[in-house]
Amino acid sequence: MKILIYNWVQFDNPFMQGGGVTLYLRNVIEELLRRDDVEVYFLSSGDKYGMFGRKPAIRQTKNAYDTPRLRTFTLWNSPVKAPAHDAFHAIDTWLDDPVTARLIADFARQHGPFDAFHIHNLEGISGKVLSLEKSDTGIRRLFYTIHNYMPVCPQIELLYDGRLPCTDYHDGARCVGCIAHNNRMKDLIRFHRMGGWIKGRGLAGHPLGGFLFDIYAGTRAYAKAARNLARDILGGLRNGFRNWHFRPRQDVGTRHGWEPDSSVKPPRILPLDLPEDRAEGYRRWRETNGAALRDNADGVFAVSDLARDSAMRFLPEGSRVETLTLPIDIEVSPERRAKIRAERQPSEAGVTLSFIGYDIPSKGLPFLIDALSEIDDPWYRENVNLLIVARFGEHRARQLRQLEHRFRNLRIVPAYARNQLLGLSQQIDLNVVPSIWWETFNQVTVELARLGVPSLVSSNVGAKQTLPHPETFVFRAGDAADFRARLDPLVRDAALRQSFFDAELAMPSVAGHVDELMRRYGGGV
């Protein structure tokens, strides 16, 4: 069987870009390669740009696996930049760009036929890829996995303004104001070209590399200032330089009385001033991608029931989404798990709570800080440690500082490699997953569980369906009082924490999961 897999970043990326999806694909591909009758082609896009050669093209890449049954490729100079937020304000290009779809179709004709083309997101490629003519390209079956909500939500999380789960996108009008930044994708690509050029010369992280990047950025800023001045001069020529008079050097005082005199005009009433109305583009994004998945995909999978149900609210009538729960490569027997925990030597006495994740609102760290700051209990100050595993800036650090007076201690781990996960788990008694978005899964929950660490998760976490006692280990998302009510008995009672392991997690092995994929790739389901 010959399989083509797409993700925006290559699955063996040394920096684990792409997070959980990258890890999942590594696990799946390693299992596929254990099967002698499988050949895997892997394609990425949206992350590689040349400084001088700028024509989009697919090139073969190196990978960490020494086998002729795995070939990896990347689409250089994609008109659609990854990750998703870089393309958010170029929604029409993201949806309609013909270049990426044409190149992938040509690639499939050249290297196919493929029994299956499995797409794992639309970052780096246009939505047109979902509508590829299978019979014309040598693709027998096309599949899509919902790791996030990208086909219906270019913000990917269905989380409006980083605050509220999105239940109605108002035909795209709500999407226009969803993301605060207004970065132009073309500008981001230009800077990515320069960054790639510096990296290609071994200067990434080097002072000289930083100097060259700053020179490039500064030159672009000067060029922009010159363009703005030229534009103002042209405008002045047209209107007689009406606005070019010099302003007063010093403001004149005023009494600010409330009664107007005869010279006072009423305030100007203006329409809402936006450069363009992109609501139509976001509406088309959802509707076009949804129709393509319904009409052209041979299977649409979600990584949890929560992901499936959330996506279905925005997909067109007649859509079908099947849950295929994610596996994890940490497959540990109860006996080995007990041995791992028996050997632990935590660096601190007491009970240690942890948060492991990104410092973004959707992952819930701001919520967690606020919820924990309301705990004013001497027992916590004497017995409970807090471990935050995340990179964050000075602002978040100042917010965390208040918790030093609520807990026995507060420690930070800014980053960890995957082969450090076991050691990290040995420091933790209870992990907290406070996500406020409809998180499609959360692999950290199941990774830690396999190593003997229970998690208290929000009701918006897809991995909750794997837990044997959700009534004990799930709290209402965004409800600080309910969170504290569930947390307190778990912190105080080790036996209650241990009940997390009364049964194994309800999830497949990697081999079992790949068996299910192979059945679908072969048309057996």
UniProtKB/TrEMBL annotation:
The keyword Translocase does not apply. Keywords: Transferase. One of its GO terms (molecular function) is glycosyltransferase activity. Pfam families: Glyco_trans_1_4. Gene3D superfamilies: Glycogen Phosphorylase B (3.40.50.2000). The keyword Phosphoprotein does not apply. This is Glycosyltransferase. It comes from Aliigemmobacter aestuarii. The lineage of its organism: Bacteria, Pseudomonadati, Pseudomonadota, Alphaproteobacteria, Rhodobacterales.
